[in-house]
Amino acid sequence: MGVRFPSPAWKIERQTMETFGQETDKVFCRLLENADVFALYLDVRGRIILFNKKIENIVSEKRENILGKNWLNVLFHDNNEVIKQQMFKAVIDDSITYKRPNNFEGLIIDRNNIQHLIFWNISPILNASGALDGILLIGNDTTALKEREESFKKIDGTLKNIFSSIKEYALYVTNLDGNITYYGMGSEIMFGWQKSDIIFKHVSMLHLQEDVRFKLPLILEQVNRSGQYEMEIDLLKSNGQPFPVILNVSQFLDAEGKPIGYIFIAKDITERKKLEYQIFQAEKLAAIGQLAAGMGHEINNPLFVISGRVEMLFERKKLERKLREDLEVISTQAERIRKLVDRMLKFSRSVPPKLESININDVIDSVLPLLSYHKLHTSKIDIKKDLVKKIPPIKGDLNQLQEVFLNLFINAYQSMPEGGRLTIKTDNFQNLYAQIWISDTGCGIPQQNLKNMFMPFFSTKKDGTGLGLSICYNIIKNHNGSIEVESQVNKGTTFRIKLPFA
What we know:
This protein is α+β, with helices and mostly antiparallel strands. It is 42% helix and 26% strand.
């Protein structure tokens, strides 16, 4: 430092130290007085020989009260700081004993009881013969820096918690070979894989097999070309179930800007897809409803004429047997058309429900006895009811809801000609909806037909009109509810209905 420090062997008296301080003050001030560091020079006994202005500020003592004092008594004025003193003293004693530099970070409390986190650099000063002259301490106040670091850590932790709590998002990272190196922030919730089961596995585990060969390489090629790429795609859960996401893939760069992997962010859009489908379904139903209303009225007019003429012919006394049989066929088919037209008109009218406070469990119990009137093989079907008690009432039209459940129960029975189980369950969904599950163990519905189940005139039955489920859909929609269907061939079908509480 350009200062020739006195030999610690000298016998330093108070007056001598003050004189030395005056002689070296100009040099010391030029070098360290205005430096933004704490500077202390100790003799081998730990007495303070030199120091700068910053030391005075933190200990709030005058210069003459600091010179010659033991550094411990100056920096640690609080008797409750014994542990800090001993730790710091051990580090300095190590530098004195072994003549080697050391570092120490610890808290210093000033006279205003404000804590300062100081990082000390401890350097032994040797004379020409290699003997220890003293110890130089340079300290940097890192309090503000540490506070900023802690603040950043809290912000970072908060962001991670926010991101992790959003179940619709998943973040995972791969290396350039496609092996997953980071898997977190909603990934376990979205995919169902635990981190230990998928880390270091290839990212193709999360993609459909037909996409692994074509789409995945295309995505990574686009990312390498433009830095990032976004597309709508189906990914795979751990149980093999596909689900739709918006997948954003970008390059993962190191500090020098060199690509070292890929960052994947997936947003689950299953609910959005359901909502889009419901809107699309509602628009189609509205259009078909208008068409059905027009067709119904147009068909009814000539149908009344045909039915009337047939009745007139039946009134004739002398009719050949063959002619009478032909007229009966015409009458039967005309009646069949009339019933179909009635259902079409019923579907198109979409009569607003007459709302009253009703218990959904009571509605279900009132419908089950009606099944025997439809000539169904009730003896072969095992009915299991799991109706939650004390469920809040809903606002609904009793007759319309009875029609919905009767239609669904009949469909379930018809899907189990050899017998099976019909399970009916109700529960309270988030204190907002009455949720009803109607499940059978019947033949099931092919996956390609599920999206058309509520479409008018779509039926998989030979004699079905395809209007039953459409009418059910309209009734539930007019009750501000929702109806969904899940099915697997040869395993069964489940309808889930939600109706808002009163």
